[in-house]
Every structure is written in structure tokens, then in C-alpha cells.
Write a structure and sequence with these properties.
By secondary structure, the chain is mainly alpha-helical. It folds into 2 domains: about 15-110, 434 Repressor (Amino-terminal Domain) (Orthogonal Bundle); about 130-255, no CATH class. The protein contains 11 helices and 3 strands. It has helices at about 15-25, 30-35, 40-50, 55-65, 75-90, 100-110, 120-125, 150-160, 175-185, 205-215, 225-240, and strands at about 130-135, 195-200, 245-250. The radius of gyration is 21 Å and the shape is elongated.
């Protein structure tokens, strides 16, 4: 489903709109480029009117402007439409209309702070938070014994020190999968979403991102097109609620024999 741009959109040039919205965020061109996974020169050219972002980059740009406060509260939808309409107007090869389903999904993660809370929303907020888990191919840990010190260390990192990323490394066959599965079950009650996936079959990044976005959002967000946009949406979901993501067999997306941990072609995302 796609949405045509409203007829009353302003005819501001994209370069001016981007400069205005980036200025509100306080981000430099280099900062914004890093968040979008592109070069500073690309952002500079966009703000000079020399080039325009692709559909994927434009989606990611809107997400990051929204996150960083570059869009006016209460007018996020209209300003996203203006940005998109400006690119469609000015870029000869840009004919894709703004995807309304994608935009609805992004905006649902950032409700306007000017919106007055309704009675239903207040009632829902007072209810116990829904907790859901998807264990995929995680092994059964009913008979797990030992490794108490390792488990205690990992629990401390995650729960007390709020470590956002932990890696369990070691030779094959020493029980890393069982250890982390036990850890996940021990920590599950501290998270609203628990998601386990094995990367053993080297699932394409975009495909994995789509499945995790659908799960973490409670089937409320339609994954956007493009790896960069999906990564941006995933990060917003992780910021919005306590989630535990567990990736097993991570070595399958790395290039064999490369001690520095280089990714295989197509898996850098």
C-alpha cells in the first residue's frame, strides 16, 4: 500500500528542508552520515542540491531525523511527506511514492508528545506489561548443570551493569549454546521480549531483520524495504522496551580463517 503526497505540500527544495531538519537535531553532516551508513560527502551533496538519496536512504533519513528530534512534534507525518515529495519532484529517477504502511509503522514507535493520553491508553498503561518469548531452535535446558560461575558473571553483566552486548566465545563443542540458552531462561522474566535465533544456515540479514521486527513490535510494524531502514527500525524497537536477542552460531556469518572477524560477503549488516 502506498500513499500519494498531499496536494497542499509546500514546494520547498529538498536541500533546504534537509538543512533545516538537520539543524534542529544538532547533528553535523558527519554525524548524520555515520547514522545513515553513508559518507559525509553524500550528505553534503544532498544539502547542496547536487544529488538525492535513494528510496532506502530516504527512509533511513526520515527515521533518524524523527529519532533525533529533527521533525516538529505533531507535524512529523506532514514533514516526512514534504521531504519525500521534494525528492520526487527534483530527482528525475525518483518515482516511488511514500509508503504509507511503512510511515505508519515508524510513527507508531514515536507517538507525538502533544497527543493527549486517552482513557483507554491510561488503562492499558496500568495493565501488566505483556511478555512474549520466541525460543526458535534453542536447546532444552531442563537437565543443565554446572557453569554456575559463568552464569553468575553473565547475569551480572546484563542485569547489574546493563551490558548491551555480550559474546560467549570458545572452541566448538564446549557447551556455549547450552550455557547461553540457560542464561536466556534465567533472564527471561527481566525482559518484555526474548528472541532466540540460530544463524547456522546463514539467513540473509534482511530476512532475519524482518522476522525480528515483526516479533518485537507484536506484529504491529511492517518491516520497511532495505537493510539500512530495517536496522533503524530494529534499533528503535530495542530502545522502546527491554528486549533480549540471542544469536547462536554467529561464526557462520564470518569469513573462515580470518582471525580479525571479517564478515562473509552479504552479511556485514
Amino acid at each position: 500500500m502506498v500513499s500519494q503526497c498531499p496536494q497542499d505540500l509546500e514546494t520547498d527544495r529538498f536541500a533546504g528542508l534537509l538543512l533545516r531538519h538537520r539543524g534542529r537535531t544538532g547533528l553535523t553532516q558527519r554525524d548524520l552520515a555515520a547514522r545513515l551508513g553513508t559518507s559525509r560527502r553524500s550528505v553534503q551533496d544532498w544539502e547542496s542540491g547536487l544529488s538525492y538519496p535513494s528510496v532506502e536512504r530516504l527512509q533511513a533519513l526520515i527515521v533518524h531525523l524523527l529519532v533525533a528530534g529533527g521533525l516538529t512534534v505533531g507535524r512529523e507525518r506532514a514533514e516526512a511527506h514534504r521531504l519525500w515529495a521534494a525528492v520526487v519532484r527534483e530527482a528525475p529517477r525518483m518515482g516511488a511514492p511514500l509508503d504509507a504502511v511503512w510511515l505508519d509503522g515508524v510513527l507508531s514507535l514515536h507517538p507525538s508528545s502533544e497527543t493527549e493520553p486517552t482513557r483507554d491508553a491510561n488503562v492499558a498503561a496500568a495493565r501488566p506489561l505483556e511478555r512474549t518469548q520466541d525460543w526458535g531452535e534453542a536447546p532444552d535446558v531442563l537437565d543443565f548443570v554446572g557453569r554456575a560461575d559463568d552464569l553468575a558473571t553473565l547475569r551480572k553483566w546484563v542485569l547489574e551493569e546493563h551490558c548491551r552486548l555480550a559474546a560467549v566465545l570458545g572452541m566448538g563443542g564446549i557447551g556455549k549454546t547450552a550455557l547461553t540458552s540457560q542464561l536466556g531462561h534465567d533472564l527471561a522474566s527481566s525482559f518484555q521480549r526474548v528472541y532466540w535465533r540460530s544463524l547456522r544456515d546463514a539467513l540473509p540479514t534482511t530476512q532475519w531483520l524482518a522476522s525480528v521486527i515483526v516479533f518485537l513490535s507484536g506484529q504491529q510494524v511492517v518491516p520497511p524495504e532495505g537493510e539500512g531502514s530495517r536496522l533503524a527500525v530494529l534499533l528503535e524497537l530495542l530502545r522502546g522496551r527491554p528486549c533480549l536477542l540471542m544469536l547462536d552460531n554467529f561464526e557462520t556469518v564470518l569469513e573462515p580463517g580470518q582471525r580479525e572477524g571479517r564478515y562473509r560477503d552479504g552479511f556485514a549488516g
